[in-house]
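Repro:
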Amino acid sequence: MKKTIIYILTFILSIFIILLIGLILADTTILNEKYIIKKMEKSNYYQKIYDITNEDFKKHTLQSGFGDEIIDNIIDKEIIKEDINSLVGTIYTKSGYTIHSQEIRSRLETNIENKIKTGRYVITEGDKSNIETFKNTIVKAYANNIIYGESIVDVLKSTVTKVNSLMNMIYIGILFVIIVLIVLLNTIDKDKKVQFLQVALLTTGLFFIFVSLFMRIGVNFDNILMFNKEISKLFINIINNILLYMGLVGAVVISLIIIKNLIWKGKSNG
């Protein structure tokens, strides 16, 4: 009966250790603004959004009556990077975001004015209306490529804010339960017939290795589509990165147990 209680408590201890490590992984990856920005930089995300946005602009140049050169230099990679980082910062903090919509409109208007000054275009009242629609369309297209909808930003911001606000309490709660379980197990198993901490850590290590391998081999993340191809690729990259970390954590935990047992066995034989 005593051993059964010890194994049950050890299993519960394993669950809370898994929760603690999982929380640390989430806190240092998907809940970490710097991590997300670093992943975007490494995956060349800003350049890809720049290319997508330019291609999107070209689809709308026909209604303007001008050629593709009308959109030359209205955006650049620095503007894209600043606006995306501002948006990411908004999701992870309570501050609002700003994008260069007005500057893009201003640059586009300058290009249009320069075209008209060449004298090759006769602008009617109808043309003026079409040009104004074109400007609005370009600005909206830019915002859509950066933001993907304000409602989505609000949901993400609300979710991350709530999770982060509870993070310290969750950490304290999990650590408290782990300490109580260790004290309780030490009290019940005074003779140390069951190496409960070792068993709990071994269970934790095997769990993370199994989940990492199963998810990476058994689940096809390539079919995930979010907003556009580049967002999907970034999301898949982050998932694979987290799964890799999980596998490494599991391998390190098990390796430490093996090393500890080898050292202990060496001392015993000595």
